[in-house]
Amino acid sequence: MTSSSRIHQRLRLQSAALEAATNSIVITSSDGVIEWVNPAFTELTGYTLDEAVGRSPGDLLKSGSQGPEYYERLWNTILNGQVWRGEITNRRKDGSLYTEVQTVSPVFDDDGNITNFITIKQDVTENRELQARLQQQAWYDELTGLPNRQLLGDRLEQVLRTAKRRHRTIALLYCGIDRIKMVNTTFGFEAGNAVLQAAAGRLRGHVRDMDTVARVGGDEFAILLPEVANAEDAGLVAERILEAFTQPLNISTDANAQPQTLSLSVSLGLSVFPGDTVAGTKLIQHAAEAMYSAKEEGRNQYRFFTHELTSRAQQRLALYNDLRQAINGEQFDLAYQPIFVANSPRMVGFEALLRWDRTGHGRVSPDTFVPMLEETLMIVPVGKWVLREACARLRSLRDAGYSSPSMAINVSKHQIADTEFVNTVERALTDFGLAPRDLTLEITESGLMSNVEGHTATLKALRELGVRISIDDFGTGYSSLSYLKQLPLDELKIDRSFVQDIPGDDQDEAIVRMILSLAHILDLTVVAEGVETQDQRAFLEQEGCDQIQGFLLRRPLEADDLEGFLGSPTP
Ligand code: C2E
Ligand code: MG
Ligand code: MG
């Protein structure tokens, strides 16, 4: 038995123990030919024992990541009888790379000659990747302190995962500062940098804490909105940012110099998930594309990525913009629909209904724009205008000698919630010399129920003033009898949807009857709205409805037609 085969024998005995090792182990001959590998080696590299035996570790696993010097040093060390320890990146059978720390120990025979080498390898790929990521602590942009593109990508991935699970909408806003190059060339890079810092602060200041503002390129920022209700919502954030940049930026390039102000606009691009892309990762790219189109089309504006998705959103945003202008211009006016006493030709008064002459669209229905006014709280100033305009109209009718009619005005829950509201009403009454009884304020049932406790106090104050309070669209909300009892009310208006199918629809007939008896128990006047047919009217009158309003009797009138409608003044 040669000494080499003796060692071989011994190794075989030990192989049982080596088999179980979790580190991969390679035994080579003294000239580096593999004689044995353990299962952990096969698991790590993909090469079976049979495939490995007879080859050299070098040509089996070489990745090319190390130069010849590495192997030279390795061989020098082990041929000198010393243990080599080093890190090496190798290639698996499937071509992928991994990094391992290998310890190569020479094995000697009794004469002190090297017979074999035993290599124990420890896979450190994961450690190295982690280290690399930690080293690349470039998660943040140095100049602005904002997250950089990598971190944004990371967060986007996280947010997408949640969004998919929870069916949430995400928006990405891409923001470019217009004409920053001009700042650089005119004032120098210092100033350019100061602008970027100021812009970063301004962006951060106009989004929620949960939103990520990142600097993704020279003069480009991205804002990740991980939770938006819809595309329009994201559009409103864009609006806010555009607005924010109408204020000049304060920049100081030098600690001693006076801070300067610079006015710069931004261009914004928006993309939304789901909708614009199934692969959420495209979100940034899409938003960037949209931003470039905003720049091309004249800067200082925002664009959505696709037209389809956002045509609705864009329409709504156009509506929003037009409404903002309508508030400043004189595009609103009021129509007046008469309300009649049931079973009689006598008129009790008018309901003032908001009308809008929208540029390019003609006269548009309040149903299309009142919800937007409510969402944006623009209803508060517009509602105040309605109140004063209707009071002014009533005043002019009184002045013309018409004493009878009263005026019903629709008020939004946001007006009621406004602490100034009672004063506003009081002012309107005194300014136009009207009695509180001349005025009925209609608030929708759903508006009222949205905050019963909060609204009750205001309604009580209005009632004390002497103004009549009416619940509009009654039957569509969820008021309970106990609430109705507590609320300071004078009137209920049965919603049009219940009037539509009576007589004939058993359920609606029953609901109308119930509302009538309920209201009368509570001593409330009942008005039926949307009465279009004689049958509807007959049913309502027979069931004891107090007042009737609808196209059957009169469509809403233009202000100019009121006097004609009222006929000659009562003497
Ligand atoms: P509303 O207060 O229930 O007003 C009644 C609506 O029914 C009015 O629509 C009126 O034109 C319509 N109408 C009246 N009779 C008939 C009928 O026989 N058949 C049909 N199909 N409709 C009839 P309009 O003017 O389009 O107003 C819609 C809603 O917009 C109003 O419903 C009210 O909720 C809101 N609105 C209107 N003006 C104002 C306002 O100044 N402030 C507030 N907050 N909301 C307003
Ligand atoms: Mg109404
Ligand atoms: Mg109504």
Can you characterise this structure?
This protein is an alpha/beta fold and 571 residues long. The chain has an 8-stranded mixed β-barrel, surrounded by 5 helices. A 5-stranded antiparallel β-sheet has the order 2-1-5-4-3, with helices on both faces. A hairpin with a 5-residue loop joins strand 13 (332-341) and strand 14. The chain is elongated and about 135 Å long. The model has no long low-confidence stretch (mean pLDDT 87). The structure holds ligand C2E and magnesium ion (2 copies). Residues 472-473, 493, 495, 529 line the site of one magnesium ion. Ligand C2E binds next to strand 14, helix 13, helix 14 and strand 18.
Number of helices: 23
Radius of gyration: 40 Å
Instruction: Please identify the structural class as seen in this structure.
Output: alpha/beta
- Shape field: elongated
Please report the distance between the alpha carbons of the first and last residues. Answer: 140 Å
Task: Give a nutshell description of this structure.
The chain is of the alpha/beta class.
Keywords:
alpha/beta; 5-stranded antiparallel β-sheet; 22 strands; binds ligand C2E; binds magnesium ion; 8-stranded mixed β-barrel; 571 residues; single chain
